[in-house]
């Protein structure tokens, strides 16, 4: 049985991974084609973002049928073959479950709109405060009001995301029963992992009121019944199979809640995602306001979460990238002058922490942001909405495009760059979204031929986690906390110690370590291995990993 502490999860956004039939959209058969590559990389789980029937207003996170596969991605037989062939290579499949909301195209919502009281109670409908004024002033995560008016009822329904994504009423036992039934359906197919989308938003308040301090999120984030509902779902599904791992996506959460979500004694989830470290380049906490990386803020957040979760016996999912984030090498690294060095350094930083590492497709060979100059090349509903919102605020087109280029979710959604042929080997047709113009320089085929590539660095990191128990089970101690350029930490387990030292800048940096252990050996570097010394001059974006075992 796999231990999620020694495992690595690889996230696939099927639409952009590999197209097997030339329609320009990645599909399940495309994933089957690339299983040998994923086995070579050494990953343990493939997390698939939604491939269910969907109008695709939010790239599949608007689910219209939880038990059916959208024909553009393939068939149920294709999925069953993928599960079987992946298992033969000792790889398990993790599905993405979107249970905060459904598409307004879902049969439940259609029946609700038709006036069926049972299904209307599956959602959250409220009267306005007065004519033309929504029940509260809450804002949608995608901009605008979180309420949509339905004239037929003279009521509004809640949608924390797009207006085509109506929030489910988890206070309704029948809704929770439906969700348990859906999970059991996928468990019966042999699915061994589940990622729960924005799951800490499902428990809404008993009283809906205006938020005079913000956008409403404080009223529904980590709500009063959240732990009760997760325990109920887990008891009736995940807990029935000890091989299953679960990860919850937690929006604007806290360490205390995440300990409860992931401490094994609570029997809720295996681990959690939090996103605080990916806001260290937000001006005043606003995604759509640019600022340079606040490195000391990043260090502080990562250290606090590592220490806090360990203290409470919680477990982190550690990551830089996903389908909702820009490419980290373009964001916190240097994707031009020090592309290879900074990509490896960032990988080293995150993979050797306490927690289960997640790789997002393309990250393992250094894919960079799209840098599209024209809004017409973007497909993401959030990006298009904010293009118009920012223009309405008075920003120039150039200012708006600079923000979109840095922040758009489409940065992580351009097709995977398999080789340097037309369309990067992704499709023989026209890709659903344009490719990055750097695909001839940055691709899998090129990295596989180079033993010093970013790809081989990721492969080595995955191997190290399985080889050294101090990485998967050791405690975490921050080092050089006051250093404004270098992120460093120590992992300790019994007689084993691991030192991780990462320079986040293009300058040379001198450091002095308290450790004077002559038994340390360099087991990984993004330049070349060096002998241990407590006085080191780090090269631009250099990362060094030293290991010691007092028993050897």
Description:
Strand 12 (245-249), helix 10 and strand 13 (271-273) form a beta-alpha-beta unit. The two termini are 29 Å apart. 29% of the residues lie in helices and 19% in strands. The strands form seven sheets. The protein has an eight-stranded parallel sheet. Strands 18-19-20-24-22 form a five-stranded antiparallel sheet. Helix 14 (381-392) runs antiparallel to helix 15. Among the domains are: 1-98 and 318-347 and 355-370 and 408-467, Glycosidases (TIM Barrel), CATH 3.20.20.80; 107-167, Oligo-1,6-glucosidase, domain 2 (Alpha-Beta Complex), CATH 3.90.400.10; 475-549, Golgi alpha-mannosidase II (Immunoglobulin-like, Sandwich).
Sheet bearing the most strands, described? 8 strands, parallel
Number of helical runs? 18
> What is the CATH topology classification name of the domain at 1-98 and 318-347 and 355-370 and 408-467?
TIM Barrel
Average residue-wise pLDDT? 97
Strand content: 15-25%
CATH level 1 name of the domain at 1-98 and 318-347 and 355-370 and 408-467: Alpha Beta
What is the H level of CATH, i.e. the homologous superfamily of the domain at 1-98 and 318-347 and 355-370 and 408-467? Glycosidases
**Name of the CATH architecture of the domain at 1-98 and 318-347 and 355-370 and 408-467:** Alpha-Beta Barrel
GO molecular function: alpha,alpha-phosphotrehalase activity; alpha-amylase activity
Protein name: Alpha,alpha-phosphotrehalase
Pfam families: Alpha-amylase, SusG_C
Enzyme class: hydrolase
